[in-house]
Write a structure and sequence with these properties.
By secondary structure, this protein is an alpha+beta fold. The protein has 4 domains: about 90 residues, Uridine Diphospho-n-acetylenolpyruvylglucosamine Reductase, domain 2, CATH 3.30.43; about 120 residues, Uridine Diphospho-n-acetylenolpyruvylglucosamine Reductase, domain 3 (2-Layer Sandwich); about 120 residues, Alpha-Beta Plaits (2-Layer Sandwich), CATH 3.30.70; about 90 residues, Alpha-Beta Plaits, CATH 3.30.70. A hairpin with a 4-residue loop joins strand 17 and strand 18. About 45% of the residues are buried. Bound molecules: flavin-adenine dinucleotide (FAD).
Length: about 450
């Protein structure tokens, strides 16, 4: 694609969108050419920002006519470079951020346009006495379109599932410029394949998501957040199973290595460890109550943690004494990526394996990576309860930023561990289900 051909396309887009919908100033485009991790850098001579589904459809048709590739973009907070245009400058960014209307909210569902920021969706649901039960560290800037397109999970998957389970319908512009409207709200729809489900996690390859109908749940009546120290990931998993055997009110169960907490305390301002002593591993636990009729969440966590504390499964634990303290505990968890990014180069992968295999995967893979790449530090953190953790290998102290070029070989250690043959003590099913969701390209 030549520069004059792209310029002709952008001129045609300007006629359709008006000046407000087209950015060509390199300084304004620059922040959107690099991914959140600073790992990928692209090039593009324009950002198009339609304000309606019809405008998106018009741009898709024009792009097809002019044979210009489009790279859809929401908040640009994802971590695999999918929102970054290629380096040759041949593609134009299609930003959905101006499509930021919440079209409706009722007891069951919110219909939100693709550019609605997750925090804004939370606020709108809450104002209607409901809750959209998916949250993650990037909630202040990630968008509904990006969440749908990456099948995002976040910290509440344990109880409510990923976007795949929370999306009731999708509106999208398909590659021929036609509009698919799946917002109708049929609970059971037997008309064949579900295009809505195909669009979830498709990262823009099948169409541009312009709006989604999202399932809402009752607003939480209260919540309690606990922080516990444990000896190892297996102890954390045993704790989770014991809690789940007694209640279905656990929403968040996040595993945090002591070494990662150290990074947060060192690099993120105004943070302090919830526990006085040092622990090899930590878990952050959140429980909620739906109504005043239920035992308060604080009382629930207090009595559920008493036995594990008494028998030593949990080394120490504390309950947040206020909402501010609960937020402070979550801030420690949400700052892990930021702290690791500040600490230096690291390769990062999002790994899913069956939950019961996860503790062994974490320990064995960390040992294998550290043995193969001397001086590195490997560990995982995140959603143990979903069998999904962020597995990072940090560069040796003093390594330059070029160390990241080792992402391929280092990633291979993890991918081999994910895909390794089942041992006799693992079920066939567990092996078949093993999967790696690459947060970085496979080597
Ligand atoms: C601190 C932090 C914590 C995170 N924690 C989690 C977590 O716990 N769980 C989790 O799942 N993810 C997590 N993420 C990543 C998460 O997937 C993204 O933040 C979010 O889902 C992407 O939304 P976005 O609007 O920024 O999308 P972008 O980054 O802009 O785009 C993501 C992908 O979707 C495509 N896309 C965007 N909008 C559309 C659209 N309207 N139609 C079609 N394609 C589109 C893009 O081309 C790209 O391929 C985290 C990110 C950060 C920075």
């Amino acid at each position: 694609m030549t520069a004059p051909a792209i310029a002709r396309f952008i001129d045609a887009a300007r006629e359709r969108l008006g000046a407000k919908g087209v950015v060509t100033d390199p300084a304004e485009i620059a922040p959107w050419l690099t991914d959140w991790r600073g790992r990928w850098h692209g090039a593009s001579s324009g950002i198009l920002s339609p304000a309606s589904t019809e405008e998106v459809a018009a741009i898709v048709r024009l792009a097809a006519q002019h044979r210009v590739p489009l790279v859809p973009q929401g908040g640009n907070t994802s971590m695999v470079g999918g929102a970054t245009p290629p380096t040759d400058g041949a593609a134009v960014i299609l930003s959905l951020r101006r499509m930021n209307r919440i079209r409706s909210v009722d007891d069951q569902r919110a219909v939100a346009e693709a550019g609605v920021i997750l925090d804004h969706l939370h606020a709108a649901a809450l104002a209607a006495g409901r809750r959209f039960p998916l949250t993650l560290g990037a909630r202040g800037s990630c968008t509904v379109g990006g969440l749908v397109s990456t099948n995002a999970g976040g910290t509440q998957v344990l109880r409510f599932g990923t976007m795949r389970g929370l999306v009731a319908g999708v509106e999208a512009v398909l590659p021929d410029g036609s509009i698919h409207n799946g917002l109708g709200g049929l609970k059971k729809d037997n008309r064949g394949y579900s295009l809505d489900q195909l669009l979830i996690g498709a990262e823009g390859t099948l169409g541009i998501v312009t709006a989604a109908a999202l399932r809402l749940v009752p607003a939480a009546f209260d919540r309690a957040v606990a922080w516990a120290g444990v000896a190892a990931p297996q102890a954390a998993l045993t704790l989770l199973r014991r809690l789940q055997a007694e209640t279905d009110r656990i929403e968040g169960f996040e595993l945090i290595p002591g070494t990662s907490l150290d990074l947060v305390l060192a690099h993120i301002s105004a943070t302090r460890s919830p526990l006085a002593g040092r622990h090899a591993w930590h878990v952050l636990i959140e429980a909620t109550a739906a109504s005043a009729q239920q035992e308060s969440s604080a009382a629930l966590l207090e009595h559920l943690l008493a036995a594990p504390l008494a028998d030593g499964l949990v080394e120490d634990a504390t309950l947040a004494a206020s909402e501010a303290q609960a937020d402070a505990f979550w801030r420690l968890r949400d700052s892990l990526s930021e702290a690791e990014r500040t600490a230096g180069p690291a390769t990062q992968h999002d790994i899913s394996v069956p939950i019961d295999v996860m503790p062994r995967f974490m320990i064995e893979t960390a040992n294998a990576a550290e043995a193969r790449f001397p001086g590195t530090h490997a560990s995982g953190f995140g959603h143990l309860g979903d069998g999904n953790i962020h597995f990072h290998v940090r560069a040796p102290v003093g390594a330059g930023s070029d160390w990241i070029e080792r992402e391929g070989p280092v990633g291979a250690v993890r991918h081999q561990a994910c895909a390794r043959p089942a041992r006799p003590d693992e079920s066939r099913q567990a092996h078949r289900l093993s999967a790696c969701n690459g947060f970085a390209p496979l080597s």
